[in-house]
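Incident review: delayed structure delivery

Summary: a single-chain prediction request sat in the queue longer than the usual turnaround. Root cause was a stuck worker, restarted by the on-call engineer. No data loss occurred. The affected request and its eventual output are reproduced below so the record is complete for anyone auditing the incident later.

Affected input:
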Amino acid sequence: MKILYLVTKPSFRFEGPWELRDRDGVVLMQDAVLAPPAGANDFFVCDADAKTRSIKNDSPRISHSDIIDMAKKFNKVIVL
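Output delivered after worker restart:
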């Protein structure tokens, strides 16, 4: 099962029950763009949220439309 995690909380930790697998996806949204989650090496950043918070980093950015398209490709979406 492929899970897409939409992380909204800054400094979230992927551990224990929230351990990531290779096929899972992570998108940082809202305040999560301020502090990427521990345990997630590959993730996308919501471009609109990063711009609103003046975040400058090299993480790949995606639009809200891209997030919707991405969610359709996963079996489950979890908002944290």
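Verification: The domain at 3-79 is CATH 3.40.1260.10 (Hypothetical Protein Ychn; Chain: A,).
Action items: add queue-age alerting; document worker restart procedure.
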